[in-house]
Write a structure and sequence with these properties.
Blueprint lengths: L7 H19 L4 E2 L1 H8 L3 H9 L5 E2 L3 E3 H12 L5 E6 L3 H8 L8 E8 L8 E2 L2 E2 L1 E2 L3 H8 L3 E4 L3 H14 L3 E4 L12 E4 L2 H9 L3
Length: 205
Amino acid sequence: MDVKKVPDIITARLPVYLRALQRMADAGLKTTSSQELGEKVGISAAQIRKDVSQFGEFGKQGTGYSIDYLMDRLREILKVNRIWDVIVVGAGDMGHALANYQGLINRGFNIVAIFDNNQEKIGQTIGDYVIEDSDNLIEYVKESGIKIAILTLPASAAQIVADELIEAGVRALLNYAPVSIATPPNVKIQYIDPAIHLQRMTYYL
């Protein structure tokens, strides 16, 4: 099946499976079943089998899945069997947190630069990074061939910066700004707004 035709709800679950499989591999396990994996991630065994079957047959009846093989295939499907260079735009609290976060590189993502338009921040360091001037952002994206950007900007600036990045060649945006951004069909955008997720939980309290 063409990956592009697979529903987003299915592809959204694949990284969850990959994370659980990695933990199982780290614990020394070699094989698993859809039942065991389902218990790890809170999804039914039937749903896991259905999701995985969208991309081929990876397990054997009665023997389950080879953890290493299934991890390799999921990395290939998600295109994280390589390292993607990523930029962060916005050197505020969230930008600092991302710069110091060590959990991206082993999942296929390498932050290569952080940009801000605050003249007082430009030239300062965050961990291993020197904050770059946003005036050089578009030139950097074009010259480096950057395809992924993380936006940790005020809501008022997010759409403008996103438009510039897309024009420069960025095709995937992870947006922390508390605002929806309009993008063309060939650009994928994901949103992370802690307040929205908290509001979804308090409904049940």
